[in-house]
Write a structure and sequence with these properties.
Helix content: over 70%
Number of strands: 0
Radius of gyration: 28 Å
Distance between the termini: 57 Å
Number of helices: 28
C-alpha cells in the first residue's frame, strides 16, 4: 500500500500540500476560537492561512522563512488598502487593477516575487470577501498575524519538508513506478489476444509515469543533493534505469509479433500492435522469462537489507549473466533479445541501488556481476571528474518578456471583469476578477487560457450543486461547516495537479459553506458565482486574444522548434562521442530535451482537448508529439550508450557513425527551419538505410560487446521517426544524397 501511495503521489507532494494547508487553517481556527473572535474573523483567518501556505513554493526552508516573513507586511498593507479604498469605488477598482498587474509582473523575480504577488492579491480579495472596514482593521491585523504564524508552524514544525527529504521520497516513487512498469510488462507477457490492447495501454501509462517521475527528480537534484557529483551520478542512474525499462518493454512487444515493433507503439494511443505472431507464446523459455521478470521486480522493490540475501543475490547474478550470453535459454532470436534486455535492466537496477543505498555486499558475486560492478565504478569515477558549464540563453526584454506580457493582459482582462462584474452584482463582482486572474496563472497562449477557463466553469457549475447540498445539510452548525471546509481544502490541493476541474469543484463547494458561515448563503448567490466565473473566463480569453496575443499555433511552433533544436543537439553530440570525440555532458542535454518535450506536450493540450473543433488537427498534434517522444527515446538511448565509451572496456568508438548521424541531424534542422519559417527551402534528405550506409548485414549479425549493433538500431528508428515528421508538417523531400 505504501508503494502504491508513493507511486500515485511522487514525493508525496500533493499529500503534503493538502495536509499542510489544512493544518495551517485548523491551527488558525483553534487559536482564534480561544480568543473568541466573531465568525467573519474566523473566515478571514482561514483564507489568510490558506494564502500564506499555498503561495510559498521555494524549496529551501531558509528561503521559505524569509518569504513568509516578508509576506506578513505585504498582507497587512493589502488588507489596509482594501478596507480604506472600499468606500471609493472607482479608486478602489483602479488600485485593484494596478495590484493585479504588479502581482503578475512580480513573477519575473522568481518564486519569491510570485509568492508575494499571490499573497497581496489574495489578501486584498479577502478584504472584499469579508467586507472589511477601517474600524475592523485592528482585529483583522491580529487575525492575519495569527494565520501567518500558524502557517509557519504547520510548514516548519508539524509537516516539515526538506529538499533532501523530498528527493528521497521521489526516488522511492521512481522505484515504485519502475516496479509497476515491470508488472505491466509481465501482464503483457501473459495477455491473450483479447486483452493485449488493454495491457498495452497499461504499458504506455506506466512508461509515461516513470518518465514523469524522472523529470521531477531532475528538477530537485540541485537542491536535494550534497554536491554536483552526487547529483550527476543520481541523474545518470535514473536515466539508465528509465531507458533500460522502456527498451525491455519494446523488446517484449517485438517478441510477441512477427516483426520488430515500432517505438511509436509505446507513445501513441491507438497505435496497433504488430500482427503475425502468436499471442501469447507459452513455452519453457517464456515461463523462464516470466520468472525472471518477477525477479527483476523484486530487485527493484526490495529494501537493501533484503536484497543482500543469498536467494536474491543468486537471482541478481542470473539476470546479470544474460548480459554476457550466460545461460540464455533456447528460444527465438527476438525472445533471446528480451533476456539480454533483462540483463541490461538488472544492471541499471544494480547501479540505481548503489547510487541510492550505497555499497552492497559483494560476497556472492559471480564474475559477470563483478564485471558489472567494475563498469559502474568506472562510470561513477568518470561522472565525478567531469564538469561542463552550459551557457545561459539571453532572456527577452520589454513586452517580449512573458511576465510583462501576461501582466498587461491580465490587467486589461481584470478591468473588463470589474466592469462586467459590477453590472452583474455590485457586492460580489470580485469573483469575475478572481477567475480572470486564475486563468492566466501557468498559461502562455490563448488556447491554454480558453481550456483553463472552460475547466474552471465546469468545476464551478458542479461545485455549485454540491455547495447547495452541503449548505442544506450543515444548516447553522458552525464547526461541522468548518470541518467540511477543511475537507474541501484538502481535496482541492490534493487534486489540483491532477485535474483543474476537480480543484474548482472543491473550491466552489467550500465557498458555499463559507457563505453559510457568514449567513449570506442563498442559491442565488451560488448561481451568481457561476455567472461571474463565466464572465471572468470570457474576459480573460478576450484580453489574451486582443492584447499582445500569443496564439496557440505560434506557441506550439516556438516550442516545437525548441524541441527539435535540442533533439538535434543531443543527436549530434551523441554521434560525435560515439565516433571518438571527447566526452560531453549528454545526460543533461537529454534531460533538456525531455523538458522541452514536456512543455510542448502541455502547450498542445488546447489542440488535443475533446472540445477542440478540428478533429484532424487534434489527431495531427497527437501524432507529432508521439513521434517526438519516439525520437526522444532513441536520442536518450544513444546518449546513454555514448556515455559508456570512456569507461566500458568492451565498447569502442566507430568513426563511421558520425557520417551516419549527419543525415538525421540535417533532417531535424530542416524540419525546425520549416516550422520557424514556412518559406524555408530546406528539405528532408533521403537515401539508403542507416544500416546499409555502414555495413550490410550488421543488423543480422550482431557483434555483442561493441556499440555498432545497438546504435544502428536506434539510429535507424530515429531516422524513420524524423522522416515521419515531414509528412504531417508538410515538408518536401530532397533527392537522395550519398
Amino acid at each position: 500500500m505504501w508503494d502504491r501511495l508513493a507511486a500515485s503521489d511522487p514525493g508525496l507532494l500533493r499529500l503534503t500540500a493538502g495536509l499542510r494547508t489544512v493544518a495551517a487553517i485548523a491551527l488558525t481556527l483553534a487559536v482564534l476560537t480561544l480568543v473568541r473572535v466573531p465568525v467573519p474573523h474566523l473566515v478571514a483567518g482561514a483564507i489568510a492561512a490558506m494564502a500564506a501556505t499555498f503561495a510559498i513554493r521555494e524549496k529551501q526552508r531558509s528561503q521559505q522563512a524569509v518569504t513568509l516573513a516578508l509576506g506578513l507586511p505585504v498582507a497587512l498593507a493589502s488588507v489596509s488598502l482594501g478596507a480604506l479604498l472600499n468606500q471609493w469605488v472607482v479608486v478602489g477598482d483602479v488600485f485593484f487593477v494596478v495590484l493585479i498587474f504588479c502581482a503578475v509582473y512580480g513573477r519575473r523575480f522568481g518564486d519569491r516575487g510570485t509568492a508575494l504577488g499571490l499573497i497581496g492579491f489574495q489578501i486584498y480579495f479577502l478584504s472584499l470577501f469579508v467586507h472589511a472596514t477601517t474600524s475592523a482593521l485592528p482585529g483583522l491585523y491580529g487575525v492575519i498575524a495569527v494565520a501567518f504564524v500558524c502557517s509557519g508552524v504547520a510548514r516548519f514544525v508539524l509537516l516539515p519538508q526538506t529538499p533532501a527529504g523530498t528527493l528521497d521520497r521521489l526516488r522511492r516513487a521512481f522505484r515504485a513506478r519502475l516496479g509497476q512498469l515491470v508488472a505491466a510488462q509481465i501482464e503483457l507477457l501473459d495477455a491473450g489476444p483479447e486483452d493485449v490492447e488493454k495491457v498495452l495501454e497499461h504499458l504506455r501509462t506506466g512508461t509515461a509515469r516513470l518518465h514523469e517521475t524522472a523529470l521531477m527528480i531532475q528538477g530537485r537534484l540541485a537542491d536535494g543533493t550534497a554536491d554536483e557529483a552526487t547529483a550527476r551520478l543520481l541523474q545518470r542512474r535514473i536515466a539508465d534505469a528509465e531507458i533500460a525499462a522502456e527498451r525491455l518493454g519494446l523488446l517484449l512487444l517485438t517478441s510477441r509479433s512477427a516483426e520488430r515493433t515500432d517505438t511509436l507503439t509505446l507513445h501513441l494511443p491507438g497505435a496497433p500492435l504488430p500482427s503475425g505472431g502468436e499471442l501469447p507464446v507459452r513455452d519453457e523459455a517464456t515461463a523462464v522469462l516470466r520468472r525472471d521478470l518477477e525477479a527483476l521486480r523484486l530487485l527493484v522493490l526490495r529494501p537493501v537489507g533484503e536484497a543482500s540475501g543469498t536467494a536474491l543475490a543468486q537471482v541478481r547474478n542470473r539476470l546479470l549473466g544474460y548480459r554476457e550470453e550466460e545461460n540464455l535459454p533456447k528460444a527465438s532470436p527476438a525472445l533471446q533479445d528480451v533476456f539480454r534486455g533483462l540483463g541490461e535492466a538488472a544492471r541499471a537496477v544494480l547501479g540505481l541501488r548503489i547510487a541510492l543505498d550505497g555499497p552492497q555486499d559483494e560476497s556472492d558475486d559471480t564474475p559477470a556481476t563483478a564485471r558489472s560492478r567494475e563498469e559502474l565504478d568506472a562510470e561513477d569515477a568518470a561522472i565525478e571528474s567531469s564538469e561542463e558549464d552550459e551557457p545561459e540563453e539571453p532572456e527577452p526584454t520589454g513586452l517580449g518578456r512573458p511576465t510583462t506580457r501576461a501582466a498587461v493582459q491580465v490587467a486589461v482582462g481584470s478591468a473588463l471583469a470589474i466592469a462586467g462584474g459590477e453590472l452583474l452584482s455590485s457586492q460580489r463582482w470580485y469573483w469575475a476578477v478572481l477567475t480572470c486572474w486564475i486563468v492566466f496563472l501557468n498559461t502562455a497562449s490563448t488556447g491554454e487560457i480558453l481550456v483553463k477557463g472552460y475547466r474552471r466553469l465546469i468545476g464551478t457549475v458542479l461545485g455549485v450543486v454540491a455547495g447547495i447540498g452541503l449548505a442544506g445539510l450543515v444548516g447553522h452548525h458552525t464547526w461541522t461547516a468548518f470541518a467540511l471546509v477543511l475537507l474541501c481544502v484538502f481535496a482541492a490541493f490534493y487534486t489540483a495537479p491532477l485535474s483543474y476541474t476537480l480543484m474548482s469543484f472543491f473550491v466552489t463547494a467550500m465557498l458555499g459553506l463559507l457563505y453559510t458561515l457568514l449567513s449570506t448563503y442563498s442559491v442565488s448567490v451560488l448561481v451568481l458565482r457561476v455567472e461571474e466565473t463565466a464572465l471572468g473566463a470570457a474576459c480573460g480569453v478576450i484580453a489574451a486574444a486582443v492584447v499582445l496575443p500569443i496564439h496557440t499555433d505560434r506557441r506550439t511552433n516556438e516550442l516545437l522548434v525548441d524541441t527539435l533544436d535540442k533533439l538535434a543537439d543531443v543527436t549530434r553530440a551523441a554521434m560525435d562521442q560515439l565516433s571518438g570525440a571527447p566526452p560531453a555532458d549528454l545526460v543533461d542535454r537529454a534531460r533538456d530535451l525531455d523538458q522541452a518535450l514536456a512543455d510542448l506536450r502541455a502547450a498542445t493540450q488546447p489542440l488535443t482537448h475533446p472540445i477542440a473543433p478540428q478533429r484532424s488537427r487534434r489527431d495531427t498534434a497527437r501524432y507529432v508529439v508521439a513521434l517526438l517522444e519516439t525520437c526522444a527515446y532513441h536520442a536518450r538511448s544513444l546518449a546513454a550508450t555514448a556515455e559508456l565509451l570512456p569507461t566500458h572496456p568492451s565498447i569502442a568508438a566507430d568513426p563511421r557513425l558520425r557520417g551516419a548521424g549527419r543525415r538525421i541531424v540535417h533532417n531535424i534542422e530542416a524540419i525546425a527551419a520549416h516550422v520557424a519559417d514556412p518559406r524555408s527551402t530546406a528539405g528532408i534528405e533521403t537515401g539508403p538505410s542507416i544500416a546499409s550506409m555502414l555495413e550490410p548485414g550488421t543488423l543480422r549479425t550482431p557483434r555483442y560487446g561493441r556499440v555498432t549493433d545497438r546504435v544502428l538500431r536506434h539510429l535507424q528508428r530515429l531516422d524513420e521517426a524524423v522522416s515521419g515528421l515531414a509528412r504531417p508538417l508538410g515538408i518536401t523531400r530532397e533527392r537522395s544524397r550519398k
